[in-house]
Amino acid sequence: MKTYWKVDVQLGNAENEIVVNEFLLNLKRENKSAKTIMNYKYILQEFFKDRKVSYLLITSNDINKLIEERRKIRTKNTIRSYLVGLSSFYGFCVEKQYMETKPIRNEKSERYWETNISISNDENQKRLNSFLLSLKEANKSKSTIVNIREFLQSFLETREEKISALTSDDIKDYLEVHKINCMKEKVNIYISYMRSFINFCVEKCHLEKSPNIQTIFEGILKKDEVPEKYWVVISLPNQNNEEVLNEYLLSLKVSNYSKGTILGRRNFLQSFFREEEELFSNLKSNEILEKIKKVSKGKKEKTISNYISDLKCFYAFCIEEDYLESSPIKSRWFPRLPQPVPKYLEKEEIVKVQQRMEKENIRNRALFEFLLTSGCRIGEVHNIERENIDFEKRTVLVLGKGRKYRQVHFSVKCSLLLERYLDSRKDNESALFVTLNGDFHRLSADTMRKLLVKLGKEVGLRGTLHPHRLRHTFATDLLAKGAELSFIADELGHSNLMTTQVYARLPKREIISMYRKYMG
């Protein structure tokens, strides 16, 4: 099992073998189950074993020929697995920019009522597909079915136990995780998805008896509805643990940490100490590590790293407050995560988007240019007031993380677009960007995101055009022009220069340009 993420037969082409192994290793780093990885491995081994030609030269006809041959001897589900495996592999190649397009059609759009990932337990996958098909037969819309599928796939993907073993705690824990950073309406939607699926399983006798779902749902909806209490943990078996945890979470609130950050830490720490009768200061390192392993089962490495970080911060607070002398959390526990590289727009991609923006209304043009040339976070843009703009200096006062204000700059072109936009408005709304439907409310961050995603799709960008990609583009452009990291940190509102160091890992654009000139 040590090398289950590597092919165990020699492929007909050495280049194919290297890329297939890279793909499988990437699945392991994403914390996919061993079963899922081995399924992909067997599919790719069978496909590439006797092929001398490079994966780059394989056509859709080659793949279709294989599928037609398999249809005569394999089940429908097996054929589906082949398509998913090959599509995932070639999707990885496109993402890594080894090739521009996949030589395989996207089955997802044609069979949206079926799962499009491999779920750890085959029986669970069959049950979920059966449920999704029932929705299609009940004439539910495609978008509804896709949304339900994505949510339930996420719930079942790494679950080894059968649906018949589903407990109230399983449902409660998962829904509470998804409550973090969600509006109440979104939580209600998640609950309705889960309720429908559970009722279907009970009706089809996949569950012998239903968990007490009504009590679970009511508890989740009532919990934290009073905003001023979202930093409070409740009902821990050890009263001292509860008091110190609440003292720690209150310190985060006083220090202006975001609600999402506090909720995330509170939910994990409450879960971690929920059944712990021992005082937090008496827990030994090995005991804490065992509990981390238990709650981290089936989680991605990034999630595990966050769990350890939450505990480390809590125990650091305890040291500062003289509750204990040294932290039981060890740095060696942190998993080694791949170093992230920010995704930014190339110059030709920026030009392509700007050309498309010429057809947009003046508000959308001003919004795009502001995001591109100011480096602001989407939440910061959402909160900007008209009165805080200084057109003479081309600056604006924004409220960033930690409730800290800072001045940001924007370009001449952006200034002209903003002035035209504001001159065109006849409302008294204080917000910089407002809706266009006549009621002139502050434009939501979610609407801004959707505008950019739609724009990126229309111009054919690789990857999603999200607001943070424009922020990365802004920072990368400053770096390419020779700006110091400290200046970039000030513009982005980074309180810690280490956060800005991520841009130092990017290759210089001149290097990329020279490589492409000589190597293609």
TrEMBL record:
Limits of the Core-binding (CB) domain: 14-94, 239-319
Give the GO biological process terms. cell division; chromosome segregation; DNA integration; DNA recombination
| Location of the Tyr recombinase domain | 340-516
Subcellular location as annotated: Cytoplasm
Which keywords describe this protein according to UniProt? Cell cycle, Cell division, Chromosome partition, Cytoplasm, DNA integration, DNA recombination, DNA-binding
GO terms for cellular component = cytoplasm
Q: Does the keyword DNA-binding apply?
A: yes
GO MF terms, alphabetically ordered: DNA binding
The domain of life is Bacteria
Against PROSITE patterns, the record matches this protein to: CB (PS51900), TYR_RECOMBINASE (PS51898)
Q: Does the keyword Cell cycle apply?
A: yes
Under what name is this protein listed? Uncharacterized protein
